Amino acid sequence: MGPERIRNVGLFGHGGAGKTAVAEALLFNAGRTTRIGTVEAGTTVMDYEPEEIERQNSLGLGIASFEHNGHRVNLIDTPGYADFVGDALAALRAVDLAIFVVSAVDGVEVQTELLWEAAREEGIAKAVFINKLDRDRGSFSRTMEQLVEVFGKRIAPVQIPIGEEHDFSGLVRLVSGKAFEYRDGRTKGSPADIPPEVSDLFDETRLALVETVVETDDDLLEAYFEGEEPSPQKMIEVVHAGMVVGDIFPVLVGSAGSMVGIDTLAEFIVDFAPSPLERPMPPTRLGKVTPDPDGPVVAYTFKTSGDQYVGRINTFRVFSGSFTPDGMLETAGGSRLKMTNLFAMQGKEHADPGPMGVGSIASVAKLDMLRVGDTLRSPGCGVEIAPVEVPRPVHEVTVSPRSTQDEDKLSTALARAQEEDPTIMVDRRAETKETVLSGLGEAHVSVTLARVARRFGVEVDVGMPRIPYRETVQGRADVEGKHKKQSGGRGQFGVAYVRFEPNGRGDGYEFVDQIKGGSIPRNLIPAVDKGIREALERGILAGYPVIDVQATVYDGKFHSVDSDELSFRMAGIMAVRAAAPQLRATILEPIAVVKVRVPEDYMGDAIGDINSKRGRVLGMDADGRSRMVTAEVPMSEMRRYSVDLRSMTRGRGSFEIEFSHYEPAPPQEVQKVVAAAKSESE
Hints:
By secondary structure, this protein is α+β, with helices and mostly antiparallel strands. Helix content is 28%, strand content 30%. The strands form seven sheets. It has an eight-stranded antiparallel beta sheet with strand order 16-15-20-13-14-19-17-18. It has a seven-stranded mixed beta sheet with strand order 2-3-1-4-5-11-6, with helices on both faces. Strands 26, 31, 32, 33 and 34 form a five-stranded antiparallel beta sheet that branches.
């Protein structure tokens, strides 16, 4: 199909709103499935990973397609849980319309707000589907009030429900003025008269829709003042155009569970949604993208996943040009790729992708050099699409294989996990000799390790990362570092007189050479420095590196035969040991700058929690409907903050954290660190 007959649609929103159920209902309505799967039974097309079935939650994006009225609809179902927002953000790059599924029971929730803003930044059209109107406490009016409050007056219902909760039986289309009922378990709406009980609501909301439409066009507004309403076809055109430029956000109603409104949702997608030719093009690092079917190929890889049978799968969306299977493309890095193993995803199944053109979404297997975020393009094209920005990981755990024989296998598995998920980070910290896995939350890390165990057969032990404390000195010492060893034959001899004193905070270790008169040969002085560094690295109090200290070597003794580099390195080590009792060593703890974003209602709780963590609030700013608190907090207090903040704010809070500097720890904290180090060494 040509791009004008393609609709790329994503389902977005908070977890539990029913996105996967809506996707399942749309596929059944189009005849792509013969039965409606459920999340609870683990039988949906989109949620097929074992971890998704076990947790009864979408943990990654799922893709399927269907045809309706001569159009091809590529449907992407996205996770609504905050830990897996990376896939939802990636899906925004691939679609032309974001349909936000909102529960009529729970209303507008935090992930809906965050993803709405991300869709605005991506520049794509937005619409809302109010789901679960047949559930207890499901309310159209209450949900509409929230939508208008959160997203503004551009929210425009194009449908209203007939009945609510157990009496929800159909809907009225405002543009055509036609009612449809779904009685006796029907999955397709039957034309009906508008019930008297909704006639006032119909008149009121249709008037609001008409006024929204005519306000976008001076000619329509003038005609409206003269008593002429726009035709239904004109209203469709204006709503469509308003969606494209972000002036109108249509609202539809229904229930995926009872199939009410699913057929009209499919028609809305075909009639109102933008085509790939109307989508704003994504930002680029190099060049410019235009949706030209006859131009050079430019595509964006928005998902990388692994399959135990076909290996790595990369899924991409074509923004410009066209190509056929076996065509040759290149990455922005210059790698030439032959597109031989092309297919379309239908959940976990693979289907014929058809011709590749503007708007096509397809997958390719066995191209191991391709990564999520990469641009695919015609050789010599010179365009590179900017990767989607994703949150930095904030929840850290240490990982180690239960069997030492699996160390290489675990390393490979973690590297693959990081390649497939940009919100995962693996850091091998030489200082603490730990491998640290970071994700967006506890569930994110847990699911990643479950996939590692399933796909690579590696069982992993998990722990909390060690805090990278430092030590420093508060006193001064003037000592002799002496190393003398005689065991027959040539011996070892080196003496260095060293003065230790505190250095400026943040100035680190400084070695000062004040040797005069050759008391230590010039070529052996660096060995003293090396020995001091080595001893300071081992720590004085608790085994952590000593920083912000100045060591001045001002005199020494040597032997013409027995002195060498080893002797004076040992002399430097012995100098540190001799000085240790006088230096009054203490612990420095790492301090992080934390930016916490919470709704205003949770501002007091967030500040109180920061204070309880020995934090210092630096500032508070407004950020839309939320508040941003900036604070300095010891990193030792932040190890489970992703869990604490989510619990405190009911999932509505988020934060960023970045190391800032070191500060002296309070005495009680020093005691804890020293006691823990002693216990560990024993």
